[in-house]
Amino acid sequence: MPTIEASDSTFSDGSDLHEGKYFNTKKDLKRKLSDIDMKGNFEFRTRKSNRSLWVIECIDPNCSWRLHASKIVPESTKFVIRKYVGVHSCSLLNRNANHRQATYVVIGEQVAPQYVGVEKGPGPKGVHTFARTELGAQISYYKAWRGRKHAHTLIRAIRGFRYMRKVVGIDGTFLKGQYRGVLLVATAQDSNGQCYPLAWGIVDSENEDAWSWFLTQLKEIICDTDELALISDRAPSIKKVISTVFEKAHHGACAWHVAQNIKNKFKCADIMGSYWSAVNAYRCEDFTGYMIEISNRYPRVAEYLENEVGFEKWSRCHYPGLRYNITTTNMVESLNSMLVNARDFPYVALLDVIQEKMSKWWNDRRIVATAITTPLTPSRESELRPRFAQSNGRHTSQLNPITYHVKGGELEGVVDIFNKTCTCKEFDIDKLPCVHAVAAAHHAQVSVYSLVSSYYTKEYYLLAYGETIYPVRSQSQWDVPNEVVTRIVFPREVKEKKRGRPKTSRFPSVGEFRKRKNRCGKCGAYGHYKKKCNSQTGSMEGNPLTNVPG
Fold first, then answer.
1. What per-residue string of b and e applies to 30-60 under the rule 16 or more CB within 10 Å gives b?
2. Using only C-alpha atoms, what is the Rg of the chain?
3. Residue 343 Cα distances to 142, 174, 197, 199, 249, angstroms
4. What's the CA gap between 137 and 67, in Å, rounded?
5. Binning pLDDT at 50, 70 and 90, where does residue 96 land?
6. Are 33 and 45 spatial neighbours (Cβ–Cβ below 8 Å)?
7. What's the pLDDT score for residue 544?
8. DSSP of 388-401
9. Is residue 387 a contact partner of residue 433, using CB atoms and an 8 Å limit?
10. Where does the pLDDT of residue 147 fall: very low under 50, low under 70, confident under 90, or very high at 90 and above?
């Protein structure tokens, strides 16, 4: 189809759509088009629609704008744009702010982030104002009310996630049972820095289709906003799927996995000190200094970090969103370690173990949260208290009603106690007062706790675990949809068993090395050398410790 360009008598819809672009589901494509239409104040109508096809055109029959999308293959859920003309040739009189695409479902999806991390959120009038100012849509009070109700429904699934930082770690771990497979996990961190699992999924292997399915399900329970950060390793399948499923969220690389890749590719473990200093640097000036150190010693490493990985993926100060102090996927690895024995179990038994563990966590942490007597959670109190001592002796001067200059120590800081920022950037990124902010708050006679993000408070910690996780009812009580009952599901093909003892431990990750226990050549015990042996035994012969396994 020939390309039609905008001219004096036509105008573009202003979107980034193009032929060949694909979406994970038809629903995602429709959501994208509704967003474009509302912002452009034009309407489209459907010419043909079924499970595998969607053809739409401008509401004006004489207009050139149209889109034709269909499934990539009949068995897939993914849709691809086959034909697309993104230029309108219709009259501007056809543009309508009160159009059919501004449904309460679309309004609810757009306004849902306004209810995340807040106690109440906007009412129907607030939703009406949001639709007019942000989406360019004129809607009725009733539609605003239904949109608000739908937004509440969207965020109800994982209510506890509202009360924690919007950083989610994702990873997978292999299963060791008869049918093998991979357990995919998505987890956040609560106010006390503990793992808060959001989703679990069992797939055949870590591939693009598996991650697409898992992240599409995850998107149903957490909102795709520019506040959301997704942290993972640098597997190509994960990177590609995140960019298509979560269009607004920011993707970050696990700094630990990047470090292992550096050690494996360039054999330069001695540069790791400078690398981790660059990872954790709050200010770009400090980051640049550490990168110069790396570049002077290993130019190829510096080039790899900048061009192949990208500073914005692993560096705290260059990250475009908010990842706070979370630079690795350690929170996911902790969950994998918890299930080290349960990964031998059949699938259903494994899921029962996960449910029981999460039920216990929710109850235990609720009890702990109730007993806290400080405004912040214990881990955040332990971080903040040393800063009180460090702030003593700092010279603080007021620059204006909200800005203070703090001198003393290795670094000066200019603090804005209203916008909660400091030139050291630690306050900006972690959302926990730095030493300069503590000194400024003391000088301004303002409570330091008023400068702390709500995500670190006892109140949010308690709200995150306010619900109860109940065990699954007996199978006789299940309400299973008929389409599930009639579906035929075959078990995974079991590969022929190899000779020898089955392997139960995973292969080390790239660049990961396992420490070997030292064995004494004198007594046969593990943990020390012969030179440092205190045993009176003359040799290993006849010593029962000789047979102790490593």
1. bbbbbbbbbebbbbbeeeeeeebebbbbbbb
2. 28
3. 50, 8, 17, 17, 31
4. 22
5. low
6. no
7. 41
8. HHHHTT-EEEEEET
9. yes
10. confident
| Entry pTM | 0.67
The answer to whether 199 touches 221, Cβ cutoff 8 Å, is: yes
- Name the DSSP class of 519: B
Which tens digit of pLDDT belongs to each residue from 278-290?
A: 999 999 999 999 9
pLDDT category at 545 given cuts 50, 70, 90 is very low
Give residue for tokens 């494996």. 264
- Token digits of residue 322: 């908010």
Neighbour tally for 80: CB within 10 Å:
16
Tell me the three-class secondary structure of 304-345, residue by residue: HHHHHHCHHHHCCCCCCCCCCCCCCCHHHHHHHHHCCCHHHC
pLDDT(164) > 70: yes
Strand partners, 398: 404
> Residue 100's pLDDT is what?
63
Rounded Cα distance, 47 and 66, in Å: 10
Tokens read off for 510: 């790239």
Which burial class, exposed, middle or buried, applies to 89 when counting CB atoms under 10 A from its CB (0-12, 13-18, 19+)?
A: middle
Q: Which residue has the tokens 């109700």?
A: 149
Residue 226 vs residues 147, 229, 248, 268, 280: alpha-carbon distances, Å: 21, 8, 5, 36, 22
